[in-house]
TrEMBL record:
Transmembrane segments: none annotated. One of its GO terms (biological process) is rescue of stalled ribosome. This is RQC P-site tRNA stabilizing factor. SMART domains: S4 (SM00363). Residues 1-61 form the RNA-binding S4 domain. Keywords: Protein biosynthesis, RNA-binding, rRNA-binding, tRNA-binding. InterPro entries: RqcP, S4_RNA-bd, S4_RNA-bd_sf.
Length: 88
C-alpha cells in the first residue's frame, strides 16, 4: 500500500493530501530511510513521522484497504512519541 494511503486509512493523518505533502517535504522515514508519498509500506515497517514540534514512531501491524474509525488504531502500534526541544 502507498504510504500516503496508509497514513489516511490508519487515521494517523486525517487527509491523504496532507500525508502526501508531509512525506514529500522529507518529514517521514520508513525504516530509517527518507520516504515519498508513493513509497510502498508493508507489515513490520517502522515509520517516523515529523509533525512540527512532535515526532511519532510507529510500527505497521496490519494493512487494511478500508477501515472504520474504531479499527484504524489496530493497523499500527506507537513505539515512541517525542517533543522537539525548545532552546529559547
Amino acid at each position: 500500500m502507498r504510504l500516503d494511503k496508509f497514513l489516511k486509512v490508519s487515521r494517523i493523518i486525517k487527509r491523504r493530501s496532507v500525508a502526501k505533502e508531509i512525506a514529500d517535504k522529507g518529514r517521514i522515514m520508513i525504516n530509517d530511510r527518507p520516504a515519498k508519498s508513493s513509497s510502498n509500506v508493508i507489515v513490520g515497517d517502522k515509520l517516523e513521522i515529523g509533525f512540527g514540534n512532535k515526532t511519532m514512531v510507529v510500527r505497521i501491524t496490519q494493512i487494511i484497504e478500508t477501515t472504520k474509525k474504531s479499527d484504524a488504531a489496530e493497523m499500527y502500534e506507537i513505539l515512541e512519541t517525542r517533543q522537539a526541544e525548545n532552546f529559547d
